[in-house]
Amino acid sequence: xxxxxxxxxxxxxxxxxxxxxxxxxxxxxxxxxxxxxxxxxxxxxxxxxxxxxxxxxxxxxxxxxxxx
Length: 68
Prior knowledge:
Distance between the termini: 63 Å
């Protein structure tokens, strides 16, 4: 049973090696692209932080209402 599994894995890897690899030209990032990437990162981190704070505030309200 284990021999069949190894055979399948080796065949998959050999088939993967036979596929032609896609060649892409590397695009240099312009200043505007860099600014856009930074702003997207900031936006996503702000969203994560705000979700976390809302969650923490909700947990705090539940705890306070439980003890009062």
